[in-house]
Amino acid sequence: MIENILPAGVASAELLEYPEDLKAHPAEEHLIAKAVEKRRRDFIGARYCARLALAELGEPQVAIGKGERGAPVWPRGVVGSLTHCDGYRAAALAHKMRFRSIGIDAEPHAALPEGVLDSVSLPPEREWLQSTGSALHLDRLLFCAKEATFKAWWPLTTRWLGFEEAHITFEIQDSSGTSGRGTFHSKLLVPGQTNDGGVPLLSFDGRWLITDGFILTAIVLD
């Protein structure tokens, strides 16, 4: 599914059924030694997907460390993003010489828990949600797009980005029943200076997909 919202040049892999014999990479086991079973499975599953994507890029299937705020530490010359939710794990990776940053996120296609929307959205975003009349759970789509925005932002800035610091607008290109697809635009509301000395970040453009009970969002920055 995730490959449908990623451009050419980005390698991806996803895991819906969790193999019972799937084990952590030996060099990663210490990172989850004290984790509960669900956390272990999410960690192992997402990194398993990452190694499949590394192989697709022609890179060695190495251990993937954990950096500040839990961000994955990619091999030199690689950018990427991981995501997981109940029943789904995925990774998207690319060569750094081609793409600057990647952010992906997955969520179940269900309404946000009561009381969450106000804490993760801006007033104009809530106004849009109220005006759509869509049968899709666009509140969760908004949350999913905010998560992808943060994941694309963090590797370039190593600074926190709050939910209120990006204004997201959506285009719905196709919608039928409980599925849909389209694009989104994340306007950054804070200065976007980056650690690599590149062009400051002003906004991100992404794509979204709702299918088979999941919401998927992806940002790939040139």
UniProtKB/TrEMBL annotation:
For this UniProt record, give its keywords in alphabetical order, as a comma-separated list. Transferase
Enzyme Commission number, as recorded: 2.7.8.7
Q: 4'-phosphopantetheinyl transferase N-terminal domain: from which residue to which, for each copy? A: 27-94
InterPro entries xrefs = 4-PPantetheinyl_Trfase_dom (IPR008278), 4-PPantetheinyl_Trfase_dom_sf (IPR037143), 4PPT_N (IPR041354), Enbac_synth_compD-like (IPR003542), P-Pant_transferase (IPR053566)
Q: Where is the 4'-phosphopantetheinyl transferase domain?
A: 101-181
State if Transferase is listed as a keyword.
yes
| Coiled-coil zones | none
**What sort of enzyme, by top EC class, is this?**
transferase
Q: Which Pfam families match?
A: 4PPT_N (PF17837), ACPS (PF01648)
Answer yes or no on keyword Transferase: yes
Q: Could you tell me one molecular function GO term of this UniProt entry? A: holo-[acyl-carrier-protein] synthase activity
The protein's matches in NCBIfam families, at most eight in alphabetical order, are given as: 4PPT_Npt
Q: What is this protein called?
A: 4'-phosphopantetheinyl transferase Npt
